[in-house]
Amino acid sequence: MQVISTVAEMQQVARRARQLGQTIGCVPTMGALHAGHGSLIEASAAVHAVTVTSVFVNPTQFGPSEDFDSYPRMLDADIATIERCGGTHVFAPSIAEMYPGGYTTKIRLDGVTEVLEGAHRPGHFDGVATVVCKLLMAMQPDEAFFGQKDYQQTLVVRRLVEDLLIPVTMTVAPTVREANGLAMSSRNAYLSTEERHRAAVLYRALSSAADIVTAADQDVSRHAIENAMLRELHTVEDFSVGYAVAVDADTLLPADTYHPGDRLALLIAGTLGTTRLIDNVLVTV
Ligand code: PAF
Question: What are the residue numbers of the active site?
Fold first, then answer.
């Protein structure tokens, strides 16, 4: 497996693969890989001769009081995981390589970036959109794989790809969960064993709300769905709710009432102790 650290080499590898008639899949990550990332790498490797996993902790998507400095970094372990899952290349550039001196371009999307995570983390999605665009220009994939765990991010990247005519197919794979339902996340490394146990409340809350939505054979009120999530979330000590919402799955906008056939995203964010957690499920009324 080849570890690449410069954009020039990455683009050269992509060019060579194309000359050989090979297709390229990519899995953009910030490292600290877990089974969720592994499933994306495996999905890509099943289809593409070349699977590039990028490992880059992107400073521009972290707010000033967020965890950029403490974000887990473990490149050697990540390389071993990528190899085990069938990846062929790792793209692990430095910050200077991705943001060289003189760099000023930023990508900002309206609409879907302005609510939920976007409202709680100002500038976060500008950083995500900018770095994803740069990573795609470097890796030049035919297909890019993302996890549903970061659902709002997948909508942002879809919009970016469509608006900027980036020639890549986007595939979103289901969230991989621990046995108790906790969504796999690199930030779970911050949780103690006891907190991991309590963090399962997010999936319990989503599941009980999803049951209400899928059982409805007539209109269902947003309040009923959101109250079901809040009731469950409030059973756990030390979990501070950021949001627990039932919104349109495409626009992330709320309506008072949902009708049979409506496709909803149920999304929760909150802080357990000092660790911010997010999760979601998609359901149809
Ligand atoms: O989901 C992530 O790990 C990051 O937001 C991404 C897409 C790699 C951009 O830095």
Answer: 37
